[in-house]
Amino acid sequence: xxxxxxxxxxxxxxxxxxxxxxxxxxxxxxxxxxxxxxxxxxxxxxxxxxxxxxxxxxxxxxxxxxxxxxxxxxxxxxxxxxxxxxxxxxxxxxxxxxxxxxxxxxxxxxxxxxxx
Length: 116
Fold this sequence. Notes:
By secondary structure, this protein is an alpha+beta fold. It contains two helices and four strands; from the N terminus they run E-H-E-E-H-E. Helix content is 18%, strand content 39%. Helix 1 packs antiparallel against helix 2 (82-93). The longest helix is centred in the last third of the chain and has 12 residues, at 82-93. It starts with a strand and ends with a strand.
């Protein structure tokens, strides 16, 4: 067993854009864990809410009005490498996500690897 330093990334997206966001992420990193690749988690049927500001360019909703939508969380880990992290966000998620300012959470963690 080995403990490895990783970035854990979470983002929230409406169902119709999940495949595009997932494929964008996988085009940057194959999300390998041991002998497996494309390892990620999707939590379904959450609710996302927001009120777009006057300067926002919302794909859903109107400026100044609360919008509530069904969304899901995509969560995955990558090696703790800032260059890969930036590419995953800037080239994998941003161009494939419908929101002009998607929520992307990044934390530094350690994961156990049975096989490295």
